[in-house]
Please model this.
Amino acid sequence: MAAVEFVQDRATRQPFPAGKQVAKLVGKAALQNGLITYPGTGMVDGQCGDVVSLFPPLTLTPQQADELVAKLHTTLSQVEQLV
Model:
């Protein structure tokens, strides 16, 4: 399992406002790119804080790991333009 947390400011770790729905945007874009994620919200204070969890199989090959990373990179690049 792996997770990615999304913050508005890396230095202060300020989360995005809940209204931006960053985890939901990432989840939708990931599906469009052929990647299944598990988006979660409210990790900071019950309302703000966005994460996306990934659950690759334990038998993941190096090629599949490269494909996962490429799809995640594409997804995050697309969502970055929206927020």
User: Anything to note?
Assistant: The mean pLDDT is 94.
